[in-house]
Request: fold
Amino acid sequence: MNIHLIDPAIGFPTDTENQLRVLSVPHPTDSKRIITNVVCRYQIAGSEVSFQKNPYDADESFEDAVNWAKSFARIYGIELIYAANMAAGRS
Reply:
């Protein structure tokens, strides 16, 4: 399994392989909160599965979301995890 920390200025890659993406951003209306989202996309039994785990979750930390992604990736044999913390350094 490979975890790639993404520079927010560059953005996520455009590849189409099985992958999980973890993204944390500042809440648009409450500077004390952070929104964390995990997007999952992978092939299973010849079909593509794509979903978001807790879209727009303002209670999950970036670290917890990355740990969940690692556990999920192990179960489904997903090798790529991309992670970007655009809210780093905010309280």
